[in-house]
């Protein structure tokens, strides 16, 4: 496959840095939107209603759609050209953002988030392919060297920007501004793309889209995520388990279809021979466990500090900064030569650091209790972030070490899609564990505070019988409030409690209501604290699974420089999936630009020489508070 590459067809493309700025702006748009809903989730829920599942679907819908569309989005660029497909993606993403801001119901907002993810999957795979096409080999290092830190800096600031916009409540917009900000950014990216991105074309006969494979893979993923998210609130009816079982069948059909297409010489979504490689398959399962853990932890932690501890969105965003900063430190340490020297051991070292940080967070919450402050969490979150960066830096190159050159595009695209799916699964699984135990922990916390409340009520002169009534209703009310599907609605049990407290206050004074209210707040904080502590062990278990599965990986990363002069040919040329974390989209050209900046650490330039390759894909969603998504 040959592209009319401005960087190799003559003098360097005149507007290459302007094109770079356009690609970077689009990537930042997506990055911010993958981070902001964790911070904004509680505020959104309080405004338009929706149960805990809404907070989960805001992230899961986006990342699931991104996972479903990334490989297909990259191939659309191969067929129709990266510039027009990029423009369509920017327009769609911007319009979907405005619709998100205009949403008046949970269903509408979730649907618009899915649309954002789909158009992001169309937009993002073109970005790095454009950069590789417009820069001459000697400038690729400079371009990717600027791309990585810019994305990392955006990751650090993303939660803070989201919290600031929500707290500022500009023009009464509240949470809607986190989506409206994409309107000016999208318009600038659109104008810049039209003016500065070069036209490109594929001189090979266009490949065919594997639409059936896309539908089957997406359906199988949805059959897992949907019942896991919705099952808890519905009481786990039989159909939820039927859907999960059906997902196994659909995944099997997907594998059969892909094998058949491959054997007929077609262009399958995923090359079936990849799954015969132990290292690659082990890498997929390692990534699945890891990203499920970190994305789920980020969601639950953000909900805990906002709803449980009552932090403002800005304070919540600032609380997560140590983890984001730690991830930068981890990346720098890996890039300084540790990753190349340690190889797979770097992954395990990162997982140990992350696990220590997560357990440290558990211990901090346990011993600080309801008096927890953001400063208490700095050491543990910093360790978590350092481990995150150390794991991600070599991960993608190590997983791809045993992949043949002709399989590279499909392999990286598959790895990227699994990463996005794991993000959605993490939101579903870890979020469901947290919300599933929350009500019980809040109710138990009420019971533990009951003796102190009884003492206060006795001092106020409330009879034992009335005390029993108030405490019983408080137990039920707080449990119902913690699991309510609509936070704006008052549960019936709370209405009964209000009546009982109102009667007692009228007879014995306002101190009765004050005592009950104070106890309710303390119990809610203690219940959230206990729930997040229990959920953390699910995260630890997933990280332990990733540690064990990591032994299936090769010791050293892929030597991409060995591939630079090969003609990749075949179906995987220009797969567009060679950008990981939702940021990628290596074009997999005829060998001239193979893998330039395609991964962390080093990529390969057009002349086959290694160039620093901070694709910054790994920063996406996981360095700060979530993801989703890309």
From TrEMBL:
Subcellular compartments: Cell membrane
Biased composition (Gly residues): 576-606
Keyword Membrane: yes
Keyword terms, alphabetized: Membrane, Transmembrane, Transmembrane helix
Entry's Gene Ontology molecular function annotations: transmembrane transporter activity
Major place of residence: membrane
InterPro entries in alphabetical order: MFS, MFS_dom, MFS_trans_sf
Major facilitator superfamily (MFS) profile domain residues: 19-466
Stretches that traverse the bilayer: 55-73, 85-105, 117-135, 147-166, 178-197, 209-229, 235-257, 284-309, 321-340, 347-369, 381-400, 421-443, 535-553
Gene Ontology CC: one annotated term: plasma membrane
Ranges of compositional bias, category Polar residues: 614-630
Any Pfam family: MFS_1
Region (Disordered): 563-630
Protein name: Major facilitator superfamily MFS_1
Originating species: Catenulispora acidiphila (strain DSM 44928 / JCM 14897 / NBRC 102108 / NRRL B-24433 / ID139908)
Lineage: Bacteria, Bacillati, Actinomycetota, Actinomycetes, Catenulisporales
